[in-house]
Each structure stands twice: as C-alpha cells, then as structure tokens.
Amino acid sequence: MENKGKEGRPESDKDDSGPAPADFIREIIEEELSSGKNGGRVHTRFPPEPNGYLHIGHAKSICLNFGIAAQYGGLCNLRFDDTNPSKEDVEYVDSIMEDVRWLGFDWDDRLFYASDYFDILYEYAVRLIRMGKAFVCDLAGDQVREYRGTLTQPGKESPFRDRPVEENLDLFARMKAGEFEDGSRTLRAKIDMASGNINMRDPVIYRILRATHHRTGDKWCIYPMYDFAHCCSDSLEGITHSICTLEFEDHRPLYDWYLEQLGIFHSRQIEFARLNLTYTVMSKRKLLMLVQEGRVGGWDDPLMPTISGLRRRGYTPEAIRKFADTIGVAKRDSTVSIDLLNHCLREDLNARAPRVMAVLRPLRVIIDNYPEGKVEEVEAVNNPEDPSMGSRMLPFTRELYIERDDFLEDPPGKYFRLAPGREVRLKHAYFIKCVRVARDGKTGEITAIHCTYDPDTASGEAPDGRKVKGTLHWVSAAHSIRARVRLYDHLFGAEDPSSGGEGGDFRDNINPGALEELEGCLVEPGLAGTAPLDHFQFLRHGYFCTDRDSTADCLVFNRTVGLRDSWAKLRQKPDE
Ligand code: ATP
Ligand code: MG
Asked: Which sign does the torsion angle of CA 52, 56, 58, 59 carry?
C-alpha cells in the first residue's frame, strides 16, 4: 500500500463524462477479441480458497470476474482452490456459495474444485519428471529455504537436483504411497537457482502432508502447491483470463513456465490491485483471529467486513455491485474510503427503503386536550422518493412517545425541537405545544411532557399560517412495539488498522465503542411482521435492517448506516 490514492479517489472517477471507461483488463480482452485469440472466447473464474468467509475485497473480484464474463458473452466458473487441507472446511465452501449467489451471480453448472484435478495434477507432475524438469528433493523445509538464497544473493542448487529420472519417478510414487514422513521430501521444479525471481528457484510442486481433505478424505498424503495447481486448473477449465491480485505478479513467470513445459492450454494471468478500505482489515487470517478470539460474534457479526456480516448489517448486493463498478480496476494499490461504499449504500436504500418511525430513547408525551381512548388513523407516505411505494395508516392517540433528546427544558438558541411553551409538528400528524413537565417526586427526573394539540393542523400546516421549525417522529404508546436496536461505528478506530497500535498489532486498533445496543426502543406497529434483512429508514436515525435475533416479544434492528453522507459532502466541496 505504498501508493495511497488521493483521498481514496477511484481511478475511474477521473472522467465524469458518460459511462465508465474500460479498464486495462477490458482493454486487453477487447484487443484479444479483435485479434481472434481463443476463438473469441472469454472465460474467467473466481477461485476462492475455502479457508474463511468472503470479504468485501472478494466481492470486488467476484464482480470483476462474473461482470467481465457477462459483458463479453462469456462464462465464469466458481472454483474452490482447495489444495491446503489443514486450513479448509466445508463450512467455508457453503458460505462462499451462498455469498456469491447473494451478490447476484450464477456459475450455472460450472462449480469446480482444484481437488477434483488431483489425479490429473499428479500425472502432470510425472510428466515434468519424465521431461527432466522436476526432481524429488530430500532437503527439509528449512534447508530448502536456506538454499533458496535472498533477493540479492542467488540460491544454491539442491544436492538432489541431478537425480536420474527413474529414481525421481520411483521416489515420487513412494511419496504418494505414503512411505515417507510429512515434510521429509518434496517434488521440485528444475528451473534456475540463480534466477532474479525467487519464485523460479526450483519451486516446490508437491509436498507430503497427512491431513484429511474435506473432499478427498485420506486418499492423498501429498498435495500440490498453489502455483502448480492454479495454472493447471485454469488450463483444464479453458480459462482465457486468469484475473488475480498484484501479489501474484512475481508468480506469473512460474505460471507461464508450468503451462509451457506441459504444453497445455495457456491461460493468461492478469493482475490488478486488491481493494483496501479505510477502517477495515481485509485478510482472512486476521478476520479468522477476530472470530477465534471471540472479539466479534462470528463471521457474520454485522461489524465484520465479510459479505455475510455486511448482509446481516443491511448492505444490499446492489450497493456492493455499484461500489465495485465505481471504484473500477487499477494496476496500483490504493486505499478506498469506506465513505464511498456507504455512499453507494445510501443511494440504493434511499430509493427503496420504506420510511418508518422508531423512537430509540423514548420520552412519554401526553396530549391533554386529546380524548382518552380515541384512536385516529393518520396517513403516512412510505417513501417520498417513490410514490409507487404507497402509504400506510398510523394510529394517533393521546399518549405518544417521542425521542428523549427532542425535548429540552432550557433550549439553546438554535434548538427547534420541543421545549416548554414551544410548538412543533408531529410527522404525518398535528402541531403540539408543550404546556407542562411531569417529574418523579423523588428523583426529579422528567417522566412525561404534557402538551396540547391543534386539531386544525392535521394537514401539517396551520390555517392561520403560523410556522413551526421542528418536525418530530413519534409512536403511539398503546400501539408501538418493543425493540432492541444496535448502533454501529467502525470496527477499528484507525483509518489504517493494519498499521497496528503501539504494540504494532491490528487488534490494538479495535474500537471499544463500535457497538452500542439500545434496549426499550419503540417502533410503529406495522413492523410487527418484519423478517430478517428487511430494510427501513427510521426517520432521522438512518437505515436499519431487521436482525435474525428478533423474537415475538422483541424485534431487533441493526443500523446499517446513518443518514449523513460524508462522501457526497466531500464531493460537493469544489463547486460550493
Ligand atoms: P486474503 O488475503 O484476504 O486472505 P486471499 O487472496 O487469500 O484473501 P482467496 O480465497 O485466495 O483469498 O481469494 C479469492 C480471489 O479473491 C483471488 O482471486 C484473490 O485475488 C481475490 N481477492 C482477495 N482479496 C481481494 C481484495 N482485497 N481485493 C480484490 N480481490 C481480492
Ligand atoms: Mg489466496
């Protein structure tokens, strides 16, 4: 992350005219299409390793791979890169499939596993041995590392490098048969120990590892290394463009070497910059730590940048796809502001989330001149942005609740909400005026606000033209439903949490105030039938979604995002 983008401004943002310009990957593809390469075929893949849940960075890769395939009439495979059994699990496989589908993409019948190719990969390795391009090495792991050299010093050749082919074939077969201990031998490519690229210094192709694989069980005790398995899998699936993140740039010569030596279909690897987001860590290893150490409530904790966490928090697939489109694809690493993601989210939710009223910190209001027991139905529009969403009726009664901080006994100058003697509008209902404050005899605490209402203000305006500056949301005391509401802030307090705190550990940057849970909230009665993942705008509070922890007695809502759009604000500044 040396080259931080300016304010995280996406590359594709430089040009505001018309549709987003093609990125460098699409440029390559279009060039190849016009030259007739691959017979005009475009075939990509999304290749997660099932060793954790997907995060927002993966979403970028998913949108890119599936998006490119759709745009050029091609195909995109889902392939599990499952060559490291000690860290992989079916739980992860299942969650990944769910997340890709939820994002809105479909691999049809093209679901693959690198482990399905283990037999063929073994044959490919044997082929390399026969060609004199691979050898069994008896150096132990730390010796292999020692012989490898450094960036400035060439490596040393393994003393086993010149083993005869027959001996290599025999030893490799015996590695497979389980005759040797874990880590005691490897199969290595015979390339160049003096190469300036360390990846080319006789890299390991196969290692011995006794671990039960989530698909192949105990059939294998040798497993192919990622670099070998990945290019061969791409080739076997006829992948034309193998799109991956920048850290694989130095691996490309090896990717190409294997395919050239084997003489099989040559997929083209193209690297792009991984997504980094402010206030977010994006490494599965770190996210796994947070889960395992109980620092979050699981992979789908709404504080997590995982796709399942974002989903539970209330992010929509549309917003995530829009975000991925907006940031585009770059060749250089940069950090994108999380405000941009939240901007895309607000735009999406603004268009389709119904507006409802929820009182998070209730204060009782009694309307002295409103008849006891009377219930009036007032009409409330569901979304002023979209008249087709219609309206609903809300019960209005003598006792209501408003927000505690919508009343001040001794208001400062610019306070336009309720105060003794002041008049405000109740949203979708009448003007009310505060006439008296009721207190607890012992503590002196305010227990209720007594008001009067003006029955002639049902339209939201006073017939005599008098104005009120404040409009408050409210719920009927008798009709409202109890709820618990979770307000979220960034999981990390630092813009770049990976830089670590004083001790250099990203966990030191965890924001202790990331979650605030409010009990005793009250929401309007229409929310009774809400189900998990329903989206709402709670007027004046932000966007919320129903959580799966809801019960018949108490609904639970997560605040997805507040109403203030700091990204849009930032963007407006230059024109102001
Ligand atoms: P992490 O480093 O977060 O643990 P990973 O690269 O190990 O992720 P994989 O399961 O190997 O995770 O990733 C699957 C695909 O998603 C790869 O093609 C990878 O390049 C891509 N990917 C992973 N992280 C990001 C990111 N932050 N931005 C864009 N693409 C990503
Ligand atoms: Mg990886």
From this structure: positive
486 annotated active-site: no
Distance CA 60, CA 246 (A): 14
Annotated active-site residue 79? The verdict is no
Catalytic, out of 284, 312, 355, 422: 284
Q: Which of 274, 313, 321, 322 is catalytic?
A: 274
What tens digit of pLDDT does each residue of 465-505 get? Answer: 999 999 999 999 999 999 999 999 999 999 999 875 566 79
- Tell me: the pLDDT tens digits for 173-186? 999 999 999 999 99
Q: Which residue lies with its CA nearest to atom 26 of ligand 1?
A: 57
- Residue 381: what are its φ and ψ, rounded to 5°? -70, 145
The two three-digit tokens of residue 169, written as one number: 């074939």
Domain ranges of the chain: 119-225, 360-478
Per-residue pLDDT tens for 361-383?
A: 999 999 999 999 999 999 999 99
C-alpha angle 244-250-253 in degrees, rounded to nearest 5: 95
CB 477 within 8 A of CB 397: yes
pLDDT attached to residue 103: 98
Fill in the DSSP letter of residue 406.
Answer: G
How far apart are the CA of 49 and the centre of ligand 2, in A? 6
The set of residues, in sequence order, having a beta carbon less than 8 Å from that of 88 and lying 6+ positions away, is: 49, 50, 51, 82, 213, 214
Closest-CA residue, ligand 1 atom 3, reads 283
Q: Is the pLDDT of residue 1 over 60?
A: no
pTM (global) more than 0.85: yes
Atom 18, ligand 1: which residue's CA is nearest? 244
Model confidence band, residue 4 (pLDDT cutoffs 50, 70, 90): very low
Q: Which two tokens stand for residue 239?
A: 């992948």
**Cα of 246 from ligand 1 centre, angstroms:** 10
Q: Which residues contact 24 (CB under 8 A, 6 or more apart)?
A: 272, 329, 331
Q: Mutation test of ligand 1: which of 248, 274, 288, 304 has the most ligand atoms closer than 8 Å to its C-beta?
A: 274
| Protein residues whose CB sits closer than 6 Å to any atom of ligand 1 | 47-49, 57-58, 60-61, 244-245, 274-275, 282-285
What local confidence, expressed as pLDDT, does residue 571 receive?
67
Which token pair is 24? 């460098």
Residue 248 Cα, ligand 2 centroid: separation in angstroms? 9
Is the distance from CB of 518 to CB of 556 less than 8 angstroms? no
CATH number of this structure's domain 119-225, picked from the four choices 3.40.50.1440, 3.90.800.10, 2.40.50.100, 3.40.390.10? 3.90.800.10
Q: How confident is the model at residue 84 (pLDDT cuts 50, 70, 90)?
A: very high
Q: Is the pLDDT of residue 261 over 70?
A: yes
Would you call 215 a catalytic residue per the annotation? no
pLDDT at 353: 97
Which CATH code is given to the segment(s) 360-478? 2.40.240.10
Q: Average pLDDT, stretch 105-114?
A: 98
